[in-house]
């Protein structure tokens, strides 16, 4: 799986730690210099020993493939696997391909809809986090359950819930007088239905991250606000939200990155022959079709690289926007 | 539920607190129904006959509990074989990551060697690259190694992880250096220090990484879908998609199959819930 720019933010903080740790032992007058010198000769060898498996594995399966994908993106693939260098032709084709335009729009729309789940996660986290709340771990476990459940299996279940004729969603809607539709095969509603499942499967994850953030807010703030007569709603908007903004930022970055890479839900919930496929086909789904069904690997590689650039750009934009709303204590 | 006595404040205070509590629990219960409800519906449907499942309006409880759907799901795809594949995939990837990531993490956290920063920087770039960018070359590598359509191809790349290395390095950095120095004075080698001093102390980190890796290996779809074509080599998550093709409209069988595929991970989650949630809160990201 790919990774959250947020992880990198964590790295920067951590970077300070090893320096401090490493500096401490070299305090003057300590008789450790000699011993350290003796170790030094072997340290390089030990480091090589400890690092070899992961370095080789990441090099072969992750770093080298990045280089190769970029190279492939400038090539055209014949039917039997040979490829020829064609310069920027794939990129030109991507920008002229209406299918890519639609997939990009679907993907962005999906990412925006996905963000609508964040307020739900936030209110859930705040409600659960009140001191003395009973049943916290049971609630948390049940709300978290969708996060750990296999997306392929989840998608099958939701197909059934969304079924136009026999699905429980339509019969619940029917009981309040709303007539539903065939959610997943209706091109107008299919993407919305996928977004509902996307939100459903990440609400618990975001909630857990936000609960961890809430626990780091000092209780005194609430006590003081309470003495000043601030009610729960006021406390939530004036204390919780601003102090939680770093965590909110982190989950919103993760949510967007995750949505931009959606594949499983489309693959399992929308059939290959569904009339709604054009309206739900995401960039990664299109990539999969091009690379492993149409065997157009050069084009697919270029598409993957464009996706990387788009993800970087959007994440960069989020980092730039954070100055406007994220408060670090 | 016993209400906590309000120490200060009059009746209105008591009422407001109780009202707030009721509202909070009502909201939480509604959320639980929305989030866990689909599982319950899946369970109930898996015991209905096809005819009953398509009744309008739907019945909630099955009229007679009908277990055949499970039999059909089991025979519709080679479920036991795929279950075995999923278990092997999850275990090998988890053990691989725990060993290799902890070794690399130890080197980054505790050994001062030339080029450490550069190498760590390279590891971090791996964290940032979306997995889709890698699958074409990864597929080619498996083809070149003649591993396509084998279980080895499914688990091999997942045994190495920049994320795991990063997570465990954080853990090692937080452990006191004194213990290690004492061991070094006693003449212990770095291997000994890593294995006997640091690994036992890093248990919470290892458990968190292990559980996350296991869950994500179990649920992974795109990569196993690409590298396996024979049903005998597929993992359950891929197998489910072929079950879906076969029983497109027989929802009770599909519900039974989905439930069987998710049961192991739900069981792991129920038993290790505390660690899973701590691991998530701690790592703040997917592996």
Question: Could you explain how this protein is built, in words?
Answer:
The complex is a heterodimer of chains A (329) and B (287). Chain A has 15 helices and two strands. Chain A is mainly α and 329 residues long. In chain A, helix 4 (98-115) crosses helix 9 (190-215), helix 4 packs antiparallel against helix 11 (232-260) and helix 11 (232-260) runs antiparallel to helix 15. Chain B has a single domain (68-283), classed as MetI-like fold. Chain B has 14 helices and no strands. The two termini of chain B are 40 Å apart.
Key attributes of the depicted protein:
heterodimer; A: 329 residues; two-stranded antiparallel sheet; 2 strands; B: 287 residues; mainly alpha; MetI-like fold; globular
What is the topology?
The complex is a heterodimer of chains A (329) and B (287).
Chain A (H helix, E strand, L loop, with lengths): L4 H19 L9 H40 L2 E3 L5 E3 L3 H8 L1 H18 L1 H12 L7 H13 L2 H11 L6 H8 L14 H26 L3 H9 L4 H29 L3 H6 L7 H4 L2 H11 L3 H29 L4
Antiparallel strand pairs in A: 1-2
Helix pairs in contact in A: 2-15, 3-15, 4-9, 4-11, 5-9, 6-9, 9-11, 11-15, 14-15
Chain B lengths: L10 H35 L4 H4 L14 H9 L2 H32 L5 H13 L6 H10 L6 H5 L6 H13 L2 H9 L4 H12 L1 H17 L2 H6 L8 H11 L4 H33 L4
Helix pairs in contact in B: 1-14, 3-14, 4-8, 4-11, 5-8, 9-10, 11-14, 13-14
